Amino acid sequence: MQLQFTINGEQITVDVNPRARLLDILRDKLGLTGAKEGCGEGECGACTIIMDGLAVNSCLIFAHQARGKEIITIESLEKDGELDQLQKAFIDSGAVQCGYCTPGMLMSCKALLMRNPKPTETEIRTAIEGNLCRCTGYIKIVNAVNSVVTNK
Questions:
Q1: Three-state secondary-structure class, residue 70
Q2: pLDDT tens digits, 26-45
Q3: How far is residue 63's CA from residue 145's CA, in Å, rounded to a whole number?
């Protein structure tokens, strides 16, 4: 099946199995390996991407569901060798340790900030509730997002 969608601002067409998961298309067909395979069941958030402005688990999206959609992955946050302010805030706040959950956390937070540039702490916590972190804990992640909010 020919699948057309926009990925990180670029319109693409790719030949895929319609039952393939979007996560596998991103990683295996397009070489975008930032979204990670964690649980494969939508429980951990390691595969989070932004699709049409919403944070979604790419392991739960079939290829045909991405047709015509606008998809943003972690790879698009960095521009011209410069990290996004949210990425910088994660580093500065110590919100990154092993790094496995980090792309999903960043994408969930980015989706929130795209919709609401001044979220409350409760809204930040709600935005990341589908993302599991075993190393850093959530306080440093919330602090990172708060630092971006207060610097806007």
A1: strand
A2: 999 999 999 999 999 999 99
A3: 31
The CA-CA-CA angle for residues 98, 101, 104, to 5°, reads 150
Name the residue among 76, 93, 107, 97 with its Cα closest to residue 148.
93
Structure tokens of 113? 């900030």
Q: What is the pLDDT of residue 12?
A: 97
User: Is the C-alpha dihedral spanning 53, 71, 145, 35 positive or negative?
Assistant: positive
Q: Give me the CATH code for the 2-76 domain, please.
A: 3.10.20.30
Question: How much is the pTM?
Answer: 0.95
b/e burial code for range 37-63 (CB count within 10 A of at least 16 → b): ebeeebebbbbbbbbeeebbbbbebeb
- CATH homologous superfamily for 85-150? [2Fe-2S]-binding domain (1.10.150.120)
Kindly list the domain boundaries of the chain, sorted by start residue.
Answer: 2-76, 85-150
Q: What is the DSSP letter of 134?
A: S
